[in-house]
């Protein structure tokens, strides 16, 4: 079959391998989905969010966006791509980013990070700031907070480590994500009850409460935690409004979606905003090797700003 010239050509800089995805796959799907559609969507996501869609993600892209075509009552991906390019497509662009952003997270995920935070980083923060004022300042950033389990875990660690003393501290956790729907979910702080099983029982008993919604068991985060956290949408490749400095930054399983230029830019900005000696926590498959010389590694995917 001969494929017609694409009305949505991907520029040469589009982060895809042109030989890795079939040119047309309309015979197997509800909507015709050709390589030109994937290239256009991949390039738009890269331009908007710095996320490089690998060619093996074609099935994921199709399945997540096919549902959107049904909701919009569009007959094909040509119409959807045209919508994204139109003036009326501004809101749809936001949906595209939300739909294609992976949001896998859990409470106390990669627990060695939180052991280090409780046993090493928090005592250092207390020693560093304790004599600064009657309300010492402490700032931690969860960059790529997804549905919120990470910042709530950080808040549990702070609250349990400081105890009643935390009331005299100006302690805040900033939690950001590019996916606005995830930010709304995180801000609400209510999850299916089984997701709380990864929270150690003493902390679960203290910082969560059971409730039911539509007959389903749920767990809600206590206000004590919510008061510590500010949730905001943020694209890490756009201008950052915050000035820092931060005592610690968690950015786990986010850098893997950026190309080398994007990773270098983000890590450089983290170094600028972190206190000297401040900690940067990355995901289990991420590394600063060849990306930055402004950090030294102090543990598995734990780095200190020089």
From TrEMBL:
Keywords: Methyltransferase, S-adenosyl-L-methionine, Transferase. S-adenosyl-L-methionine binds at residues 103, 105, 109, 150, 177, 235-236, 252-253. Residues 1-26 are annotated as: Disordered. It catalyses: L-glutamyl-[protein] + S-adenosyl-L-methionine = [protein]-L-glutamate 5-O-methyl ester + S-adenosyl-L-homocysteine. Residues 26-306 form the CheR-type methyltransferase domain. It holds the Pfam family CheR. GO terms for biological process: methylation. InterPro entries: Bact_Chemotaxis_MeTrfase (IPR050903), Chemotaxis_MeTrfase_CheR (IPR026024), CheR_C (IPR022642), CheR_MeTrfase (IPR000780), CheR_N (IPR022641), CheR_N_sf (IPR036804), SAM-dependent_MTases_sf (IPR029063). Its EC number is 2.1.1.80. SUPFAM superfamilies: Chemotaxis receptor methyltransferase CheR, N-terminal domain (SSF47757), S-adenosyl-L-methionine-dependent methyltransferases (SSF53335). GO terms for molecular function: protein-glutamate O-methyltransferase activity. Residues 1-12 have a biased composition (Pro residues). Methylation of the membrane-bound methyl-accepting chemotaxis proteins (MCP) to form gamma-glutamyl methyl ester residues in MCP. This is Chemotaxis protein methyltransferase. It comes from Azospirillum baldaniorum. The gene is cheR.
């Amino acid at each position: 079959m001969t494929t017609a010239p694409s009305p949505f050509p991907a520029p040469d800089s589009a982060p895809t391998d042109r030989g890795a995805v079939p040119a047309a796959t309309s015979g197997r799907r509800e909507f015709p989905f050709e390589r030109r559609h994937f290239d256009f969507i991949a390039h738009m996501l890269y331009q908007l969010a710095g996320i490089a869609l690998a060619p093996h993600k074609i099935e994921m892209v199709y399945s997540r966006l096919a549902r959107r075509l049904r909701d919009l009552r569009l007959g094909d991906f040509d119409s959807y791509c045209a919508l994204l390019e139109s003036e009326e497509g501004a809101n749809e662009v936001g949906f595209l980013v939300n739909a294609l952003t992976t949001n896998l997270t859990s409470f106390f995920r990669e627990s060695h990070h939180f052991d280090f935070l409780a046993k090493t980083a928090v005592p250092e923060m207390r020693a560093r700031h304790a004599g600064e004022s009657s309300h010492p300042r402490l700032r931690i950033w969860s960059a790529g907070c997804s549905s919120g389990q990470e910042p709530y875990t950080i808040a549990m660690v702070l609250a349990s480590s400081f105890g009643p003393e935390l009331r005299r501290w100006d302690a805040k956790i900033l939690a950001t994500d590019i996916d606005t729907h995830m930010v709304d979910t995180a801000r609400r702080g209510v999850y299916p009850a089984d997701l709380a099983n990864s929270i150690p029982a003493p902390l679960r008993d203290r910082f969560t409460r059971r409730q039911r919604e539509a007959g389903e068991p749920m767990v809600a985060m206590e206000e004590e935690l919510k008061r510590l956290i500010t949730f905001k949408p943020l694209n890490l490749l756009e201008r950052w409004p915050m000035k820092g400095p931060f005592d610690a930054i968690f950015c786990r399983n986010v850098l893997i979606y950026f190309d080398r230029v994007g990773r270098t830019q983000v890590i450089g900005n983290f170094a600028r905003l972190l206190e000297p000696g401040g900690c940067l926590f990355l995901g289990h498959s991420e590394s600063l090797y060849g990306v930055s010389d402004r950090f030294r590694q102090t543990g598995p995917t734990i780095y200190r700003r020089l």
